[in-house]
């Protein structure tokens, strides 16, 4: 097209990756299909943009079903074994994950960290109880590793509601981590809470919220540490969710009303289809007069 410079393949790939990584929750396929049409080069997408699929799934804590397992496994950076393989610590197995189709395959036994496992398994038990009480559609992951006398525990929670028939999708993600020496009495617990909601009926609005948290965790036995950790998680997440709800109510009454009038001066909603009809009619009348 005259007046426009051609976009290089590198720039196309960069733009494609950016679109894919920022796809709203539950809308990866729609965004990917649109990007595929825009780029019009499947080889370019495969060779230079496929890394975005991996980034997206790990960042979104994408849950995946594993044959023979009741619980879904989260795809995260914390259980990434490399080369497309991920760890399911509950079953001491690894699996291959297809980041485009979002399916698992080739499950196989793997060695786990025996020093961290007693701590990890207690955390997983407490985490699942917490999930059952507070996250109706949620999935959780508990991961652990050791280095000498040091233990690292990581807890991940994912919960989502995808309602395309109502024009909205949303996802909750939280990750919590703590590293401690077995002989220590306290350690720093770090948390990252994320909320992302996309509403697109007659518009396009996204809520993206993020909060970092640091707390002091008391270290005891495996069970005591897991219970204390999940208790702190529950309190922090409840406080954050309550604050979000309160802010949203305030915005509904103030900010959103300031952005636009809820109804026109006539106090009735405009029928845009009729407006188009009126405009066409006026144009025809002006041409015939």
Description:
With 289 residues, this protein is α+β, with helices and mostly antiparallel strands. The protein is built from 8 helices and 11 strands. The protein has helices spanning 9-21, 28-39, 42-48, 51-59, 117-134, 222-253, 255-259, 272-288, and strands spanning 62-64, 73-75, 80-82, 85-88, 93-98, 103-109, 139-147, 150-163, 168-181, 186-199, 205-218. The protein has a 5-stranded antiparallel sheet with strand order 7-8-9-10-11. The protein has a 4-stranded antiparallel sheet with strand order 3-4-5-6, with no helix packed on it. Strand 7 (139-147) and strand 8 form a beta hairpin. The longest helix has 32 residues, at 222-253. It is globular. The model has no long low-confidence stretch (mean pLDDT 89).
Features:
289 residues; alpha+beta; five-stranded antiparallel β-sheet; four-stranded antiparallel β-sheet; 39% helix; globular
Can you describe this structure in just a few lines?
This protein is α+β, with helices and mostly antiparallel strands and 289 residues long. The chain has helices at 9-21, 28-39, 42-48, 51-59, 117-134, 222-253, 255-259, 272-288; strands at residues 62-64, 73-75, 80-82, 85-88, 93-98, 103-109, 139-147, 150-163, 168-181, 186-199, 205-218.
Radius of gyration, in angstroms, nearest whole number = 24 Å
The proportion of residues in beta strands is 25-35%
Kindly report how far apart the N and C termini lie: 38 Å
> Structural class, from helix and strand content?
alpha+beta
* Poorly predicted ranges: none
Number of strands: 11
| N-to-C order of helices and strands | HHHHEEEEEEHEEEEEHHH
């Amino acid at each position: 097209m005259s007046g426009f410079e051609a976009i290089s393949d590198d720039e196309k790939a960069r733009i494609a990756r950016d679109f894919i990584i920022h796809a709203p929750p539950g809308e990866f396929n729609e965004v990917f299909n649109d990007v595929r049409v825009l780029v019009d080069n499947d080889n370019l997408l495969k060779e230079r943009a496929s890394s975005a699929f991996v980034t997206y799934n790990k960042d979104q804590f994408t849950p995946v079903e594993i044959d023979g397992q009741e619980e879904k496994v989260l795809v995260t950076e914390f259980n990434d074994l490399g080369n497309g393989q991920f760890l399911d610590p509950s079953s001491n197995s690894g699996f291959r994950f297809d980041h485009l189709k979002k399916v698992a395959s080739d499950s196989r036994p793997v060695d786990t960290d025996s020093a961290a496992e007693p701590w990890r398994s207690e955390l997983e038990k407490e985490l699942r109880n917490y999930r059952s009480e507070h996250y109706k559609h949620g999935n959780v992951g508990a991961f652990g590793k050791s280095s000498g006398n040091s233990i690292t525990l990581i807890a991940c929670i994912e919960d989502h509601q995808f309602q395309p028939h109502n024009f909205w999708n949303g996802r909750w993600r939280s990750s919590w981590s703590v590293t401690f020496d077995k002989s220590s009495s306290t350690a720093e617990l770090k948390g990252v809470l994320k909320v992302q909601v996309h509403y697109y009926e007659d518009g396009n609005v996204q809520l993206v919220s993020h909060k970092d948290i640091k707390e002091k965790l008391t270290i005891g036995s495996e069970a005591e540490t897991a219970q204390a950790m999940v208790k702190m998680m529950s309190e922090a997440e409840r406080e954050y969710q309550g604050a979000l709800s309160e802010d949203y109510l305030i915005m509904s009454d103030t900010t959103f009303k300031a952005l636009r009038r809820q109804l026109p001066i006539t106090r009735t909603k405009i029928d845009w289809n009729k407006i188009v009809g009126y405009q066409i009619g006026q144009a025809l009348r002006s041409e015939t007069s």
